[in-house]
Amino acid sequence: MVPWRTVPPTYSPCTKFRRDLEARVAGYFDVSRRSRHGTWRLYLKTAILMIWLAASYVALVWGATVWWQAVPLAISLALAMAGVGFNVQHDAGHGAYSRHPGVNRIAALSLNLLGGDSYFWRFKHNIAHHSYPNIAGSDDDIRLGPLARMSPHQVRYWFHRFQHLYVWGLYALLAINWQLFGDFHAMIRPGVADTRVTRPRGWNLAFFCLGKATFFTLAFVVPLLRHRLMPVIGIYLLTAAVLGLTLAIVFQLAHCVEEAEFRIPTDGTGRIDRDFTAHQVETSVDFARGNRLLTWYLGGLNYQVEHHLFPKTCHVHYPALSAIVETTCRAHGIAHRSHPTMRGALRSHVRWLKRMGRKVDAPIGPVSPTLAFSPPET
Questions:
Q1: Structural domain boundaries, residue 41
Q2: What is the pLDDT of residues 179-196, one digit of tens each?
Protein backbone atom coordinates (compact mmCIF):
# COMPACT_ATOMS: atom_id res chain seq x y z
CA MET A 1 0.00 0.00 0.00
CA VAL A 2 1.35 3.42 -0.95
CA PRO A 3 1.76 5.72 2.06
CA TRP A 4 0.11 9.12 1.74
CA ARG A 5 2.56 11.77 0.66
CA THR A 6 2.09 15.51 0.38
CA VAL A 7 5.60 16.24 -0.94
CA PRO A 8 6.87 14.69 -4.19
CA PRO A 9 9.86 12.34 -3.85
CA THR A 10 13.45 13.36 -4.51
CA TYR A 11 16.34 11.51 -6.14
CA SER A 12 19.91 10.68 -5.24
CA PRO A 13 22.58 13.12 -6.49
CA CYS A 14 23.58 13.21 -10.14
CA THR A 15 26.15 10.62 -11.19
CA LYS A 16 28.84 10.39 -13.87
CA PHE A 17 26.40 8.47 -16.08
CA ARG A 18 24.21 11.50 -16.57
CA ARG A 19 27.11 13.82 -17.35
CA ASP A 20 28.65 11.34 -19.77
CA LEU A 21 25.34 10.73 -21.56
CA GLU A 22 24.57 14.41 -21.96
CA ALA A 23 28.08 15.07 -23.28
CA ARG A 24 27.82 12.31 -25.89
CA VAL A 25 24.41 13.44 -27.09
CA ALA A 26 25.53 17.07 -27.23
CA GLY A 27 28.50 15.91 -29.28
CA TYR A 28 26.17 14.18 -31.73
CA PHE A 29 24.22 17.39 -32.36
CA ASP A 30 27.41 19.46 -32.58
CA VAL A 31 28.97 17.17 -35.18
CA SER A 32 25.79 16.65 -37.21
CA ARG A 33 24.83 20.34 -36.88
CA ARG A 34 21.20 19.34 -36.50
CA SER A 35 18.64 21.16 -34.42
CA ARG A 36 17.19 19.32 -31.46
CA HIS A 37 13.75 20.57 -32.54
CA GLY A 38 11.47 19.52 -35.36
CA THR A 39 12.68 19.35 -38.95
CA TRP A 40 10.92 19.48 -42.31
CA ARG A 41 10.14 15.78 -41.89
CA LEU A 42 8.04 16.52 -38.83
CA TYR A 43 6.21 19.38 -40.51
CA LEU A 44 5.47 17.20 -43.56
CA LYS A 45 4.19 14.50 -41.24
CA THR A 46 1.99 17.07 -39.51
CA ALA A 47 0.40 17.99 -42.84
CA ILE A 48 -0.21 14.33 -43.69
CA LEU A 49 -1.80 13.61 -40.31
CA MET A 50 -4.00 16.70 -40.42
CA ILE A 51 -5.20 15.81 -43.93
CA TRP A 52 -5.90 12.26 -42.75
CA LEU A 53 -7.82 13.63 -39.76
CA ALA A 54 -9.89 16.11 -41.78
CA ALA A 55 -10.62 13.63 -44.60
CA SER A 56 -11.79 10.96 -42.13
CA TYR A 57 -14.07 13.43 -40.36
CA VAL A 58 -15.59 14.85 -43.54
CA ALA A 59 -16.15 11.40 -45.01
CA LEU A 60 -17.69 10.15 -41.77
CA VAL A 61 -20.09 13.07 -41.28
CA TRP A 62 -21.01 13.87 -44.89
CA GLY A 63 -20.24 10.67 -46.76
CA ALA A 64 -21.28 7.73 -44.58
CA THR A 65 -24.92 6.75 -44.86
CA VAL A 66 -24.90 3.17 -43.49
CA TRP A 67 -23.11 1.50 -40.60
CA TRP A 68 -20.62 -0.47 -42.69
CA GLN A 69 -19.36 2.82 -44.10
CA ALA A 70 -19.36 4.64 -40.77
CA VAL A 71 -17.48 2.02 -38.72
CA PRO A 72 -14.22 1.93 -40.74
CA LEU A 73 -14.30 5.72 -41.08
CA ALA A 74 -14.74 6.08 -37.32
CA ILE A 75 -11.74 3.80 -36.76
CA SER A 76 -9.75 5.81 -39.30
CA LEU A 77 -10.71 9.03 -37.51
CA ALA A 78 -9.62 7.60 -34.14
CA LEU A 79 -6.25 6.47 -35.50
CA ALA A 80 -5.71 9.86 -37.12
CA MET A 81 -6.51 11.58 -33.81
CA ALA A 82 -4.02 9.35 -32.02
CA GLY A 83 -1.43 10.10 -34.70
CA VAL A 84 -1.85 13.83 -34.18
CA GLY A 85 -1.51 13.31 -30.45
CA PHE A 86 1.62 11.18 -30.76
CA ASN A 87 3.44 13.37 -33.25
CA VAL A 88 2.18 16.95 -33.01
CA GLN A 89 0.70 17.60 -29.60
CA HIS A 90 3.16 15.45 -27.68
CA ASP A 91 6.32 17.00 -29.11
CA ALA A 92 4.82 20.49 -28.88
CA GLY A 93 3.77 19.96 -25.27
CA HIS A 94 7.39 19.18 -24.43
CA GLY A 95 8.68 22.17 -26.39
CA ALA A 96 10.35 19.89 -28.94
CA TYR A 97 8.17 20.59 -31.99
CA SER A 98 9.78 23.94 -32.82
CA ARG A 99 12.49 26.26 -31.52
CA HIS A 100 9.82 28.96 -31.34
CA PRO A 101 7.72 28.83 -28.12
CA GLY A 102 4.70 30.34 -29.87
CA VAL A 103 4.66 27.58 -32.48
CA ASN A 104 4.92 24.96 -29.75
CA ARG A 105 2.00 26.56 -27.91
CA ILE A 106 -0.19 26.52 -31.03
CA ALA A 107 0.74 22.94 -31.93
CA ALA A 108 0.12 21.80 -28.33
CA LEU A 109 -3.43 23.15 -28.61
CA SER A 110 -4.16 20.35 -31.07
CA LEU A 111 -4.97 18.36 -27.92
CA ASN A 112 -7.85 20.76 -27.26
CA LEU A 113 -9.14 19.98 -30.74
CA LEU A 114 -9.10 16.28 -29.81
CA GLY A 115 -11.16 16.91 -26.68
CA GLY A 116 -8.42 17.21 -24.05
CA ASP A 117 -6.73 20.24 -22.54
CA SER A 118 -3.08 21.15 -23.02
CA TYR A 119 -2.87 23.03 -19.71
CA PHE A 120 -3.83 20.09 -17.49
CA TRP A 121 -1.94 17.65 -19.71
CA ARG A 122 1.31 19.51 -19.02
CA PHE A 123 0.96 18.89 -15.27
CA LYS A 124 -0.20 15.30 -15.65
CA HIS A 125 2.35 14.26 -18.26
CA ASN A 126 5.34 16.59 -18.24
CA ILE A 127 5.55 16.89 -14.46
CA ALA A 128 3.74 14.04 -12.69
CA HIS A 129 4.71 11.32 -15.17
CA HIS A 130 8.10 12.42 -16.52
CA SER A 131 9.41 13.49 -13.13
CA TYR A 132 8.27 10.34 -11.29
CA PRO A 133 7.77 7.46 -13.77
CA ASN A 134 6.55 4.22 -12.17
CA ILE A 135 6.51 5.71 -8.67
CA ALA A 136 3.15 4.79 -7.15
CA GLY A 137 1.45 7.81 -5.60
CA SER A 138 3.30 10.27 -7.84
CA ASP A 139 2.97 8.94 -11.38
CA ASP A 140 -0.71 9.36 -12.20
CA ASP A 141 -0.34 7.36 -15.41
CA ILE A 142 -0.06 4.08 -13.50
CA ARG A 143 -3.06 4.86 -11.30
CA LEU A 144 -6.33 3.33 -12.44
CA GLY A 145 -7.93 3.49 -9.00
CA PRO A 146 -9.01 0.24 -7.36
CA LEU A 147 -10.06 -1.27 -10.69
CA ALA A 148 -6.56 -2.30 -11.78
CA ARG A 149 -3.15 -2.82 -10.23
CA MET A 150 -0.13 -1.71 -12.26
CA SER A 151 2.53 -1.49 -9.54
CA PRO A 152 3.61 -3.89 -6.79
CA HIS A 153 3.27 -0.92 -4.43
CA GLN A 154 -0.47 -0.57 -5.03
CA VAL A 155 -3.19 -2.36 -3.06
CA ARG A 156 -4.28 -5.68 -4.48
CA TYR A 157 -7.95 -6.72 -4.54
CA TRP A 158 -9.25 -10.20 -5.28
CA PHE A 159 -10.71 -9.23 -8.68
CA HIS A 160 -7.31 -8.13 -9.95
CA ARG A 161 -6.66 -11.78 -10.79
CA PHE A 162 -8.91 -11.14 -13.81
CA GLN A 163 -7.49 -7.75 -14.79
CA HIS A 164 -5.60 -9.12 -17.78
CA LEU A 165 -9.04 -9.91 -19.24
CA TYR A 166 -11.06 -6.78 -18.41
CA VAL A 167 -8.41 -4.04 -18.37
CA TRP A 168 -8.82 -3.46 -22.12
CA GLY A 169 -12.28 -2.13 -21.44
CA LEU A 170 -10.78 0.37 -19.00
CA TYR A 171 -8.25 1.43 -21.61
CA ALA A 172 -11.09 2.01 -24.06
CA LEU A 173 -12.64 4.48 -21.61
CA LEU A 174 -9.49 6.62 -21.42
CA ALA A 175 -10.45 9.15 -24.10
CA ILE A 176 -14.08 9.29 -23.00
CA ASN A 177 -12.93 10.10 -19.48
CA TRP A 178 -10.70 13.04 -20.35
CA GLN A 179 -13.03 14.36 -23.03
CA LEU A 180 -16.21 14.32 -20.95
CA PHE A 181 -15.20 14.13 -17.28
CA GLY A 182 -11.53 14.27 -16.32
CA ASP A 183 -10.70 17.82 -17.38
CA PHE A 184 -13.87 19.18 -15.78
CA HIS A 185 -13.02 17.37 -12.55
CA ALA A 186 -9.52 18.85 -12.73
CA MET A 187 -11.05 22.29 -13.08
CA ILE A 188 -13.11 21.77 -9.91
CA ARG A 189 -10.43 19.94 -7.90
CA PRO A 190 -7.05 20.56 -9.54
CA GLY A 191 -4.14 18.32 -8.65
CA VAL A 192 -2.37 15.26 -10.06
CA ALA A 193 -1.32 12.68 -7.45
CA ASP A 194 1.09 14.64 -5.22
CA THR A 195 1.75 17.29 -7.88
CA ARG A 196 0.05 20.60 -7.13
CA VAL A 197 -1.93 22.21 -9.95
CA THR A 198 -3.51 25.66 -10.02
CA ARG A 199 -6.69 26.37 -11.92
CA PRO A 200 -6.12 27.84 -15.39
CA ARG A 201 -6.53 31.58 -15.77
CA GLY A 202 -6.38 34.12 -18.56
CA TRP A 203 -5.54 32.57 -21.93
CA ASN A 204 -5.28 29.07 -20.42
CA LEU A 205 -8.87 29.31 -19.19
CA ALA A 206 -9.99 30.76 -22.52
CA PHE A 207 -8.35 27.92 -24.44
CA PHE A 208 -9.95 25.39 -22.10
CA CYS A 209 -13.45 26.75 -22.73
CA LEU A 210 -12.93 27.30 -26.44
CA GLY A 211 -11.38 23.86 -26.86
CA LYS A 212 -14.22 22.04 -25.12
CA ALA A 213 -16.81 24.03 -27.08
CA THR A 214 -15.06 23.24 -30.37
CA PHE A 215 -14.77 19.55 -29.55
CA PHE A 216 -18.43 19.15 -28.52
CA THR A 217 -19.50 21.02 -31.64
CA LEU A 218 -17.45 18.74 -33.91
CA ALA A 219 -18.28 15.56 -32.03
CA PHE A 220 -22.00 16.06 -31.55
CA VAL A 221 -23.55 19.27 -32.91
CA VAL A 222 -22.33 19.04 -36.52
CA PRO A 223 -23.06 15.30 -36.89
CA LEU A 224 -26.56 15.80 -35.46
CA LEU A 225 -27.32 18.17 -38.34
CA ARG A 226 -27.12 15.19 -40.70
CA HIS A 227 -27.71 12.07 -38.60
CA ARG A 228 -29.98 10.79 -35.86
CA LEU A 229 -29.02 10.93 -32.18
CA MET A 230 -28.32 7.25 -31.47
CA PRO A 231 -26.01 6.67 -34.46
CA VAL A 232 -24.08 9.82 -33.54
CA ILE A 233 -23.64 8.61 -29.96
CA GLY A 234 -22.71 5.12 -31.14
CA ILE A 235 -20.07 6.38 -33.56
CA TYR A 236 -18.67 8.73 -30.92
CA LEU A 237 -18.31 5.84 -28.46
CA LEU A 238 -16.60 3.67 -31.09
CA THR A 239 -14.20 6.45 -32.09
CA ALA A 240 -13.35 7.29 -28.49
CA ALA A 241 -12.87 3.61 -27.58
CA VAL A 242 -10.40 3.02 -30.43
CA LEU A 243 -8.59 6.25 -29.55
CA GLY A 244 -8.40 5.32 -25.87
CA LEU A 245 -7.15 1.80 -26.59
CA THR A 246 -4.48 3.09 -28.94
CA LEU A 247 -3.18 5.72 -26.51
CA ALA A 248 -3.29 3.48 -23.45
CA ILE A 249 -1.63 0.47 -25.05
CA VAL A 250 1.28 2.52 -26.39
CA PHE A 251 1.94 3.93 -22.93
CA GLN A 252 1.58 0.60 -21.13
CA LEU A 253 4.00 -1.18 -23.43
CA ALA A 254 6.65 1.37 -22.49
CA HIS A 255 6.27 1.27 -18.70
CA CYS A 256 3.99 -1.48 -17.39
CA VAL A 257 5.91 -4.54 -18.54
CA GLU A 258 8.00 -7.15 -16.77
CA GLU A 259 11.30 -5.51 -17.66
CA ALA A 260 10.46 -2.08 -16.20
CA GLU A 261 11.21 -1.24 -12.58
CA PHE A 262 8.86 0.27 -10.01
CA ARG A 263 10.05 2.22 -6.98
CA ILE A 264 8.77 4.18 -4.00
CA PRO A 265 10.73 6.53 -1.72
CA THR A 266 12.62 5.12 1.24
CA ASP A 267 10.51 5.31 4.39
CA GLY A 268 11.08 8.49 6.35
CA THR A 269 13.28 10.20 3.75
CA GLY A 270 11.07 10.70 0.71
CA ARG A 271 14.10 9.91 -1.46
CA ILE A 272 14.37 7.45 -4.35
CA ASP A 273 17.52 5.41 -3.93
CA ARG A 274 18.65 6.09 -7.51
CA ASP A 275 19.74 9.13 -9.48
CA PHE A 276 17.18 10.73 -11.77
CA THR A 277 18.73 9.71 -15.09
CA ALA A 278 19.26 6.06 -14.20
CA HIS A 279 15.70 5.92 -12.88
CA GLN A 280 14.38 7.16 -16.24
CA VAL A 281 16.23 4.39 -18.08
CA GLU A 282 15.24 1.62 -15.70
CA THR A 283 11.52 2.48 -15.60
CA SER A 284 11.13 2.70 -19.39
CA VAL A 285 11.35 0.03 -22.08
CA ASP A 286 11.71 0.51 -25.85
CA PHE A 287 9.90 -1.70 -28.34
CA ALA A 288 9.91 -2.37 -32.08
CA ARG A 289 12.82 -0.04 -32.76
CA GLY A 290 13.38 -1.67 -36.14
CA ASN A 291 9.84 -1.01 -37.36
CA ARG A 292 10.12 2.27 -39.30
CA LEU A 293 6.40 2.54 -40.10
CA LEU A 294 5.42 2.06 -36.45
CA THR A 295 8.08 4.56 -35.37
CA TRP A 296 6.68 7.08 -37.87
CA TYR A 297 3.12 6.68 -36.63
CA LEU A 298 3.91 6.60 -32.90
CA GLY A 299 6.04 9.73 -33.03
CA GLY A 300 9.02 7.79 -31.69
CA LEU A 301 7.21 6.78 -28.51
CA ASN A 302 8.45 3.23 -29.04
CA TYR A 303 11.84 4.80 -28.16
CA GLN A 304 10.55 5.50 -24.67
CA VAL A 305 13.93 5.37 -22.94
CA GLU A 306 15.30 8.05 -25.24
CA HIS A 307 12.17 10.12 -24.87
CA HIS A 308 12.35 10.11 -21.08
CA LEU A 309 16.00 11.05 -21.15
CA PHE A 310 15.56 13.85 -23.69
CA PRO A 311 11.89 14.91 -23.74
CA LYS A 312 12.70 18.34 -25.17
CA THR A 313 14.39 16.76 -28.18
CA CYS A 314 12.16 16.08 -31.21
CA HIS A 315 11.29 12.43 -31.74
CA VAL A 316 12.76 12.35 -35.26
CA HIS A 317 16.19 12.12 -33.59
CA TYR A 318 15.40 9.18 -31.30
CA PRO A 319 16.59 6.39 -33.64
CA ALA A 320 20.00 8.05 -33.92
CA LEU A 321 20.18 8.77 -30.18
CA SER A 322 19.20 5.20 -29.28
CA ALA A 323 22.60 3.76 -30.19
CA ILE A 324 24.34 6.48 -28.15
CA VAL A 325 22.12 5.89 -25.14
CA GLU A 326 22.49 2.11 -25.26
CA THR A 327 26.28 2.31 -25.58
CA THR A 328 26.53 4.75 -22.68
CA CYS A 329 24.27 2.61 -20.50
CA ARG A 330 26.42 -0.42 -21.19
CA ALA A 331 29.57 1.52 -20.28
CA HIS A 332 28.09 2.45 -16.90
CA GLY A 333 26.48 -0.91 -16.11
CA ILE A 334 22.91 0.28 -16.52
CA ALA A 335 20.41 -1.99 -18.27
CA HIS A 336 18.86 -0.55 -21.43
CA ARG A 337 15.81 -2.71 -22.12
CA SER A 338 13.96 -3.19 -25.38
CA HIS A 339 11.49 -5.59 -26.99
CA PRO A 340 12.29 -6.45 -30.62
CA THR A 341 8.60 -6.33 -31.61
CA MET A 342 5.40 -4.70 -30.46
CA ARG A 343 3.87 -8.17 -30.09
CA GLY A 344 6.62 -9.11 -27.64
CA ALA A 345 5.98 -5.96 -25.63
CA LEU A 346 2.25 -6.68 -25.57
CA ARG A 347 2.86 -10.20 -24.27
CA SER A 348 5.12 -8.82 -21.55
CA HIS A 349 2.39 -6.36 -20.54
CA VAL A 350 -0.17 -9.17 -20.26
CA ARG A 351 2.24 -11.23 -18.14
CA TRP A 352 2.77 -8.21 -15.87
CA LEU A 353 -0.98 -7.75 -15.48
CA LYS A 354 -1.31 -11.40 -14.47
CA ARG A 355 1.56 -11.10 -12.04
CA MET A 356 0.09 -8.01 -10.37
CA GLY A 357 -3.22 -9.83 -10.02
CA ARG A 358 -1.78 -12.75 -8.07
CA LYS A 359 -1.69 -13.02 -4.29
CA VAL A 360 2.03 -13.74 -4.33
CA ASP A 361 3.99 -11.10 -6.20
CA ALA A 362 6.81 -8.61 -5.73
CA PRO A 363 7.42 -7.55 -2.12
CA ILE A 364 6.62 -4.02 -1.05
CA GLY A 365 9.74 -2.00 -1.76
CA PRO A 366 11.80 -0.95 -4.77
CA VAL A 367 11.74 -3.59 -7.49
CA SER A 368 15.28 -4.74 -8.18
CA PRO A 369 16.69 -5.47 -11.66
CA THR A 370 16.81 -9.17 -10.78
CA LEU A 371 13.16 -9.22 -9.77
CA ALA A 372 12.15 -7.23 -12.84
CA PHE A 373 13.54 -9.98 -15.07
CA SER A 374 12.31 -12.93 -13.02
CA PRO A 375 9.53 -15.07 -14.53
CA PRO A 376 5.96 -14.79 -13.23
CA GLU A 377 5.03 -17.01 -10.30
CA THR A 378 3.17 -20.18 -11.07
A1: 10-373
A2: 999 999 888 888 776 678
